[in-house]
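Quick start: what a row looks like.
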Amino acid sequence: MTRQKKSRKSNVNGPRLQPRTEKGSGVEGKRKSSKGKSAGSRQNEASKQKPQANKPKVTKDPRLGSKTPISLVAPEPKPVTKAAKPQQPDSLRPKPSPEQQLEQLESNPRLLALLDRMEQGETLSQDDQQWLDGKLDRIEALMKQLGIEVDQGPNSEEALMDQFEAGSDLLDQYKD
């Protein structure tokens, strides 16, 4: 087959042109609605605002920034106040079990620090001593409630039995 040169003319089988219609009659003649602001809207903003009756007419150019003075010295920090949490009524707040209360008291860092200071021979302030006594009393009450027995010194039976067993172990090691 021989090659045919392309032409701009359409042949009989080609697509036909649409008939021309007037501009307002039909969908194609409609103008699309614009999106966004029109060109130059930034410069025209000042002139569009309505003048107020009491104030004199002052046209403000929106391109200019604010004229409020800015302090060059850092402001003094304000003391931070903690917002009080809304307290739930005691009937709605679940109370921890005695085991959980005991565990929380025994892992309290302030309590542990005060006990360490007391063991080292330091004298505690009156407030710290009262707080420590209150927490230790609460621990004792919880232990009684849970049925946990506390050794009250070196004369308890368990302590004496442990010493006896440790001594017999040392004696056995000496014999070998």
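That is the whole record. The chain has a mean pLDDT of 76. The helical segments are 41-48, 98-106, 109-119, 126-146, 157-175.
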